[in-house]
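Run log, item B.
One chain of 238 residues. Sequence copied directly from the ordering sheet:
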Amino acid sequence: TTDTVTVTVTYGDASDVYNPIGQEIPVNKGSQPNAEDGIQNKNDLPQGTTYDWKTPVDTSTPGETTGTVIVTYPDGSKDEVEVKVNVIDPRTDAEKYQPETIPEIIKPGEKPDLSDNVTNPDELPNGTIIKDITPDGTVDTNTPGEYTGTLEITYPDGSKEILKVQIIVAQENEPISNGVGNSMSDNNGNPQSLQNTPKTGDLTNTGLYTAGALGSLTALFGIIVTKKRKKSQKEDIK
């Protein structure tokens, strides 16, 4: 004979049966990562399982942080899993950093060198290369006036930035004072001066140019001193 017996089987909570495993996940700075991506063995968990962050992950600062994933099973039981989150700044170095420059002031006949005209090299990453790429013939060093030079900044990640730098060719007849008892000096520490010389190019108003140049040179006294101080820092970066 055959007897039919009904047996009641009682299972524990799904959270007692399953063991979700966390894994590190990358996310761009300012974005919120997908909680489900933080669980390595999702395929081992029952269908219908959901994943949520216990609290939003702080991704405001690049680097490694942690977050807690709440794993909710179909029976309503839950597991909490701590996962590592790697916050990445997707910008290139050229987008992250802001090199600042000052004009180059030289006397007639001097060759301009813009490689030390970046005033904040200490704020740029180690391995940054600062190169003067001003094309030959751009500056007529025998003709006083204003010109535009070019700097190329190459960062460790390979990204580049091109900066335009003002070059001023002045004459040394009448010393320029900054109004506080200091005279203007060139890159070699010699007194800098400027005559009423028109700017090269299309500018025809000599008076306007002279006034502007005198004002610029006066204001640039402190800048030149800064340039000298920053030169050694620039060389350290190279």
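Observations after the first pass:
- Helices lie at 14-17, 93-96, 206-219, 221-237.
- Strands lie at 25-28, 50-53, 63-72, 78-88, 104-106, 129-132, 145-154, 160-169.
Flagged for discussion on Thursday.
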